[in-house]
Amino acid sequence: QVQLVESGGGLVQPGGSLRLSCAASRSIFSLKTMGWYRQHPGNERELVARISSGGGTTNYADAVKGRFTISRDNAKNTVYLQMNSLKPGDTAVYYCNSNPPAVVAGGTYWGQGTQVTVSS
């Protein structure tokens, strides 16, 4: 079964923190680089962070570098995104997926995402 289930989003004030979680099916997660993506309204989905299969290498988009931290628990097929010092510009729907994203039945598979809203 192919599955990506994101959670942990919500409404937070500027400067606040959130921790996102993503439970993935083994077929997507195992031995794969995993990433967190986000989509602002009206924009394309963008990669904000990724982590190698073993967890030893991470990469971040310039916009989140120094504020976000990606991690994974391979025993639980779960990837996390710790987001600190949040800004209004971080408001978006956040998705996890492998990097590159999983393809199922000829199409890119995405979970439902989790909404993050940064506002006072």
Key attributes of the depicted protein:
120 residues; mainly beta; six-stranded mixed β-sheet; four-stranded antiparallel β-sheet; 3% helix
Average of pLDDT: 96
Report the end-to-end length measured between terminal Cα atoms: 40 Å
Unreliable stretches (pLDDT < 50, length at least 5) are: none
Query: Structural class of the secondary structure composition?
Result: mainly beta
Within the largest sheet, what's the order of strands?
2-12-9-4-5-6
Order of helices and strands: EEEHEEEEEEEEE
Number of helices: 1
Counting DSSP E segments of at least 2 residues, the number of strands comes to 12
Q: What portion of residues belong to β-strands?
A: over 45%
Question: How is the main sheet built?
Answer: 6 strands, mixed
Assembly form of the protein = single chain
Helix content: under 10%
As a whole number of angstroms, the C-alpha radius of gyration is 13 Å
CA-based shape: globular
Draw up the topology in text.
Layout: E1 4-7, E2 10-12, E3 18-24, H1 26-29, E4 34-39, E5 46-51, E6 58-60, E7 68-73, E8 78-83, E9 92-98, E10 103-104, E11 107-108, E12 114-118
Parallel strand pairs: 2-12
Antiparallel strand pairs: 1-3, 3-8, 4-5, 4-9, 5-6, 7-8, 9-12, 10-11
Structural notes for this entry:
The chain is mostly beta strands and about 120 residues long. It is about 5% helix and about 50% strand. It contains one helix and twelve strands. The protein has a six-stranded mixed β-sheet, with no helix packed on it. It has a four-stranded antiparallel β-sheet with strand order 1-3-8-7. The protein has a two-stranded antiparallel ribbon with strand order 10-11. The chain is globular. It starts with a strand and ends with a strand. The mean pLDDT is about 95.
